[in-house]
Amino acid sequence: MRDHYCRPISIASINPQTFPGVSLYTKTGGNYVLYKPHDRQFSDLDRMRLERNFVEFLYVRTGDMEEVTKFLENGLSETLGRRDLNVWTKGQILYQTTVNYVIDVFENPEEAAKLDRCRNLIRYLLEYICSAPNSLNAIHSVADHNYYIFVHSLQVAALSLLVHDEVYRLTPDELTDVGIGALLHDLGMIFISNKILEKQDALSDVEYYKIKRHAQHGYECLKEIGGFSEISLLAVRHHHERYDGEGYPSALKGEAIPRTAQVMAICDVYSALTADRIHRQAVSHARALQIMRSEMPGSFNPELFARFEAIITARKKTEDN
Q1: Residue 10: which of 96, 71, 80 has the closest Cα?
Q2: DSSP readout, 133-202?
Q3: What DSSP element (H or E) covers 58?
């Protein structure tokens, strides 16, 4: 998971006039093929040619991503304010930039100490999610099966921000803390081997125990780094608790589970069900809610789940029209 030669970057993120001079690659049959060397500018003709061939992503060498990510983050305010870009394209760029941040933190957890970087991204996410009717739909545009955990982190953050904004009266700082916790909720997965994470067969009891430790490990990692609020830390630690007390790591029950963790538990399961994974294909929005309602009785705060279902269903109807 952490040793990819290249990282995907959406075509929408590449501004021909200002994009850094780095090499860009296509991916064919698992191999990376040079598309543009570092000393040739990516052009509007390149974009049109790629779009005609339904190419949504190019790839950038891991060693060049620091320069690319800095460029994208520094230009977000200007990008999101541009009138020549539609809402969908802005979402692609914002989500791609956020996924790049999550990858950076997973590859080097010390990056999480740069809290201003994370706060800025969460504020952009919150503004975009609450103002764009089809904002959640655009998340799928940055999905790549090799990057499930990173896109999943983004989707859980987006869903959690949306639900908190509509259900609770939180200050902007509280919402930011919610978003930070959601974006980094699976950080503990860095302590689990790829062999376990990518296993297609049933996990052994020992392997499942190691998976279950990720919530506590993520909490301890962020606690050690320092600077994170209790809202963020407890969300990371308790996002796998279940309302009936059958969750982990602390088997908390009912309202003993922090409110943000209750929301995140719902968003986490919904996101996991509606995304393609190595061992299971995605299910539809309706099927995911049905599974959560009928096959996971007692797992979620019933009132909160009803609110979540209403919010997400209404948003889906808007996006599908």
Answers
A1: 96
A2: TTTTGGGGGG--GGGHHHHHHHHHHHHHHHHHHHHS---HHHHHHHHHHHHTTTGGGGGS-HHHHT--SP
A3: strand 57-61
Residue 25 CB-half CA count within 13 A = 18
Could you read off the pLDDT of 226-267 as tens digits, one per residue? Answer: 999 999 999 999 999 999 999 999 999 999 999 999 999 999
Query: Bridge partners of 33?
Result: 26
Q: How far apart are alpha carbons 267 and 228 in whole angstroms?
A: 21
pLDDT at 319 over 80: no
Q: How far is it, in rounded angstroms, from Cα 108 to Cα 186?
A: 14
What architecture does CATH give domain 146-320?
Orthogonal Bundle (1.10)
Domain positions in the chain: 1-63, 146-320
CA angle, residues 133, 137, 139, in degrees to nearest 5: 120
